[in-house]
Amino acid sequence: MSDDILLRMRNIRIDGKTGDDWLPIIKGVDLDLKRGEVLGLIGESGAGKSTMGLAAMGYVRDGCRIAGGSIEFEGTDLAQSSVAYCRKLRGKKIAYVAQSAAASFNPAHRLIEQYSEAPVIHGVMNRNEADSDAADIYRRLQLPNPDEIGFRYPHQVSGGQLQRAMTAMAMSCRPDLIIFDEPTTALDVTTQIEVLAAIRDAVDQFGTAAIYITHDLAVVAQMADKIMVLRYGELVEEADTRTMLSAPTQAYTKSLWAVRSFKSAAKVAPAPDATPVVSLRNVSASYGPVPVLHGVSFDIHKGRTVAVVGESGSGKSTAARCITGLLPPTEGEVLFNGQALPPSFKKRNKDQLRQAQMIYQMADTALNPKQRIRDIISRPVEFYLGLSGKAKRERVDALLDMIEMDPKVFGHRYPQELSGGQKQRIGIARALAAEPEFIICDEVTSALDQLVAEGILRLLDRLQSELGLAYMFITHDLATVRSIADEVVVMQHGKVVEQGPKEEMFRPPHHPYTDLLLSSVPEMDPDWLTGLLAARERGDVVGELPPA
Amino acid sequence: MTDISDPSALSADAEAPRVEQETAAKRTLRAFRSAPLTAWFGMIVIAVYIIVALFAPFFAPYGEREIVGDQFELRSAEFLLGTDNLGRDLLSRLIYAARNTVGIALMTTFLAFSLGGILGMLAATLGGWVDQIISRIVDVLMSIPYIIFALLFLTVANTWIGQMDDPSPWLYTLALILIMAVLDSTRVYRLTRAVAMNIVVMDYVEAARLRGEGLLHIIRKEILPNAVAPLIAEFGLRFCFVFLSISALSFLGLGIQPPTADWGSMVKDNATLVSFGEIIPLYPACAIALLTVAVNFVVDWMLHRSSGLKE
What we know:
Chain A is 38% helix and 25% strand. Chain A is of the alpha/beta class.
């Protein structure tokens, strides 16, 4: 049955250029894909997943080259083919769906114009046929108003809709193979469900083969027929989805599977009359005339972690900006150890500023690329604590030790010479350097791979028990909430919809919105998506956002 | 340089120590070694100009203002490039002019950068009405054509200086430098503001603000180090523009005042010779062109490096 094989990659090797040297990115991987089959490629960033996906189109990024091996697509070796031949295939026979739909659409053209582009260029359809075909595909992908939505511009539809429009665009020529490169990573859990369901249906209906690249195992479990695990450009393990999930054989695969097992130890509940470290009292705020927070109140006690969850735009980060004083509230007040803080950070004194520190989501933009690690950490030490000379140096060394990084190795480096996880650790050290009582962690793990993220969570947990810190943990990832939170605040449309201790939050009955959030978190069970969609159809669980 | 293509940088194994450690000196050395031929050409030409300008009396066979022969003498062993309209040695004047033209252009550019750079940083960091006021003033200055504006101001300034009892010739030069610097600082302001705006929104600047840092610290330690690469590249380009404008103004008679040697006015003084088939006015013109091209080669290379483009 060799005719069944659509794509056959043999001993593929790809090099990337670093300075004057070629370093291998993919080190000889084989891949077979039958018609209509969905292959999940998983691994951490830098494992070579995307490079592999692009190579399936006979394409490599700038500064990379195919060093060896063959890429047979329908019997023709793309590694040996001309650029012109590959170009004829791309878009027509092989399509690509990128991670960020917002960055992949041309903002100056309507969706439907971009949809029709590929079929018209490849001569599959003329313009009118393509336009009516677009409505059909939009309908299949369950986009609202399929006849009309194509005439909108990319900024006029939501992120989830845009991702589906992009999938539709990939489908326009009815390709034999579609490569999905992390299509749902940038989306909220509730939106992710819609996109996953739409992609799966579309792939099913047209019998399209697909390579689905992701680092989220639970997602790949829903989508793929078989899974390949990559690490450092090498194949770790390959098996069909059910076997892989139930019985992984390699140690690395098992460690990926076990990542979500971390749980912080239960902490003693605060005394009922204890003064919370931070307390929001009926805080409302607005950006210009647009109100974004409506009477938000919650307390954060010493040594405890409050997770604030909700979708993007729910006001989580705005609440943090009110606490730090970047956005003075229009109403209500922020108390620190029972004392009201001045609304704007400009009016706060040094000690008030020192007490509340912040760790950012993107360590890349949170650390000044022109400052050495030692300078970044020593600035708050000298600014707040007035240390200098030897005392300052020793304090910085102690801080670096605290985040498990060797001061001798890392002290004189620049941020770009560190990995993502290391940069985030430096962000933590900078916050600790001020010796605060309270730290805001703004999505600190969402840009990191699961293994690295777990390391950061463990570190934060250890620091909390050693130093008695209070954390406000902003996240949209409920798995993180499960592992680190003591209390949970659920936000939607700038209001707190539910709050309480973690155990209560994860036990029904829920507020409908909490229920929706909880039920949308993908599970490792390959039947989860099918089951959930069926249940939502029946009305057992909430499938729609309740009106604001 | 972010090594996106470097697999070890992205490896998830967070604790794996990263490869070699480079000192700043090594980095610079490697940068120079990888410089393209054009950049080398540019650097050598600039170096020659600097040496000639610094040691002008040593290289020049005659004095800058010395009348040593007849008018418009031809090339000879005595006068390698001939003499000019007043019988001064052309080669000597060419060498001294390197000092004047380049020196004045350099001072003007420095001044323009200090003024425009500081205002641009302030506007970007403070925002609000400070930004509005400075930006609108700059808009007004920029809305009037550059050369015409310069001519207007120089005429006013020169008349004013001329009315003084015993005006020092340096006053004219000072007026030229100040006027050109102010006009050029508007362009520098716009660039600095745009560059700094992109940096101000970074989380590390927010972190510094939240720490309670003062304006000076934020500008000096957080913003400036990240803005310096595009500003240096712009410095090279600006220098060329200023230098050409000064030559143009000298050619029009309002730039560097005689008898000080200057390439622009040397072209003007000897321009009549072109109609006799002589190439003498082209020597100072070539001096201008060569330096401009050389500076641009170096700037191109620096821009390429600062943009982080690889290959």
